[in-house]
Amino acid sequence: MGTPEFAVPSLKILVENGINVVGVVTATDKYGGRGGKQLIESDVKKYALSAGLKILQPSNLKAKSFIDGLKALDADLQIVVAFRMLPVVVWDMPKHGTYNLHGSLLPKYRGAAPIHWAVVNGETETGVTSFKLKHEIDTGDVLFQEKISIGREETTGEVYNRLKELGAEVVLKTVRAIIEDNIQLLPQDASLISKAPKLHREVCEINWEDEMEVIRNFVRGMNPFPGAWFSFSGTVMKVYKTENIKTVHNAPVGTINSDNKNFLHIAAVDGWVSLIDIQLQGKKRMDVKSFLNGIDVRTFISDSLPH
Question: What is the mean pLDDT of residues 286-306?
Answer without folding.
Answer: 73
